[in-house]
Amino acid sequence: MAAPPDVLAQRVEPQGGCYGVQILVAGRRKGWRNDVCAQIRRAGFCATTVDSGVDALTVLVLGIPVDVLVTDAELQGELCCSRLAAEAKALRPNLGIIYAGDESAVSTLPPDAIILPADAEEEGVTKRVRQALRSRAPADATEPAHKRA
Fold it and tell me: Does 94 map to a domain?
């Protein structure tokens, strides 16, 4: 008897927490970063937060393990959210990207970026993180970031 599709999806999804799935949260507002980080940690994933695009890119350039980048539309400056997403994808092609905000910047985001609407339910971040992890290349999807670094 075949397992239902949702059970199969859960089997191939990397597990969080002690298995080392790392999420980088980049956002200007501290309250937003803390809310997103709390949701991610409740789901069993590890989270690191930064308040600028430059800091986020520094984390990636230094080779610190990251599986998914969550960036806020309000991230401004020379390295704003869409440019950060593009630069991050250029550095790490298999990095999951989640863009939190309206769809105004969609045309400038990497094609596989996942949109998190501003009015998403509380568990929306966790759902999008799992989606980003599942959508990565199969060889990498089962190997947490700490093993690739």
Answer: yes
What total of structural domains would you count in the chain?
A: 1
Q: What is the pLDDT of residues 91-130, one digit of tens each?
A: 999 999 999 887 766 777 888 889 888 777 777 899 999 9
Using the Cα atoms of residue 7, residue 132, residue 61 and residue 42 in order, give the sign of their dihedral. negative
Q: Residues near 67 by Cβ (< 8 Å), separated by ≥ 6?
A: 14, 21, 22, 23, 95, 96, 132, 133, 136, 144, 145
* Nearest residue to 13 (alpha-carbon basis) of 139, 130, 147: 130
As a whole number of angstroms, the distance between CA 6 and CA 34 comes to 30
**Interval 28-66: pLDDT, tens:** 999 999 999 999 999 999 999 999 999 999 999 999 999
Question: Which residues pair with residue 114 across a beta bridge?
Answer: 98
The answer to whether residue 34 is domain-embedded is: yes
Range of the domain at 19: 15-142
For residue 9, tell me if it sits in a domain: no
| Residue 127 maps to a domain | yes
In total, the chain counts a number of residues equal to 149
Give the pLDDT confidence score for residue 137 in this predicted structure. Answer: 62
CATH of the domain at 57: 3.40.50.2300
